[in-house]
Amino acid sequence: MLQLYLSVLVKGTCSTEDNGTFMVKQFDKVTIFSCVPAKDVVKLFGLETILIYTALLLKKRIVVYHHNLDNLLWFVRALPAFMWHRQDWNIIYPYMQLTNTEISELLSLPTYAAGFRDAAVEGRTELYDVFVNLPAIEITVAAHAKEMFAMTKTHKEIAVFMTRQAENADLNEKSFIKEIANKTNELLRSLRNLAVKNEFGQDVIKLSDLKKNKFAPALENFLWNLAAAEGYTHI
């Protein structure tokens, strides 16, 4: 098994007598990554899903609690699908424990979605910006992150859009994720329209230029934090 694994890792292919040849380039990542219960996440939390979406969008820290491991895993593994444009599944830490080693690991990371079975994690507010209590179907924003999660008209529009798409019986999971991705890309295109080229030809968004648009404070704050998450910011 190790030999086959190393062959895939190094050569991108492996062969066995019984199963023939496997080639990584023929492996459909989209199909596998989209086979997650993203619709169920939205159905469960409704409009409040926007808090999870915002945390993912702004690359913040999410902690999810459920005493049942299966329920915990199905939920956490679905979260990266909401940020399809990033294709970053490395943010998932599906099952962590409140040990010094694992806590230190999380504290060293700027962003993650981590699952815990220990209810005591709710009191460890240094570990999260958003806390998801699955059994209670509750989402809590940590006190230190309240300003960053101030809701705007943009948030409301995305929240309503997600809930409507989740209720659409004609959409399978793959199509649902695509619809959310399109909505996110629409938001990111609007953000890019605020960018200018710097001396190196890179797209940047200056806080001074952002302020010239006279957005409402909550929207300005959201756009600035989104620009930071997408690597556009320049003070």
TrEMBL record:
<comment type="similarity">
    <text>Belongs to the DENND10 family.</text>
</comment>
<protein>
    <submittedName>
        <fullName>Protein FAM45A</fullName>
    </submittedName>
</protein>
<dbReference type="GO" id="GO:0005085">
    <property type="term" value="F:guanyl-nucleotide exchange factor activity"/>
</dbReference>
<dbReference type="GO" id="GO:0015031">
    <property type="term" value="P:protein transport"/>
</dbReference>
<feature type="domain" description="UDENN">
    <location>
        <begin position="1"/>
        <end position="235"/>
    </location>
</feature>
<keyword id="KW-0967">Endosome</keyword>
<dbReference type="GO" id="GO:0005770">
    <property type="term" value="C:late endosome"/>
</dbReference>
<dbReference type="Pfam" id="PF08616">
    <property type="entry name" value="SPA"/>
</dbReference>
<dbReference type="InterPro" id="IPR042431">
    <property type="entry name" value="FAM45"/>
</dbReference>
<dbReference type="InterPro" id="IPR037516">
    <property type="entry name" value="Tripartite_DENN"/>
</dbReference>
<dbReference type="GO" id="GO:2000641">
    <property type="term" value="P:regulation of early endosome to late endosome transport"/>
</dbReference>
<dbReference type="GO" id="GO:0031267">
    <property type="term" value="F:small GTPase binding"/>
</dbReference>
<keyword id="KW-0344">Guanine-nucleotide releasing factor</keyword>
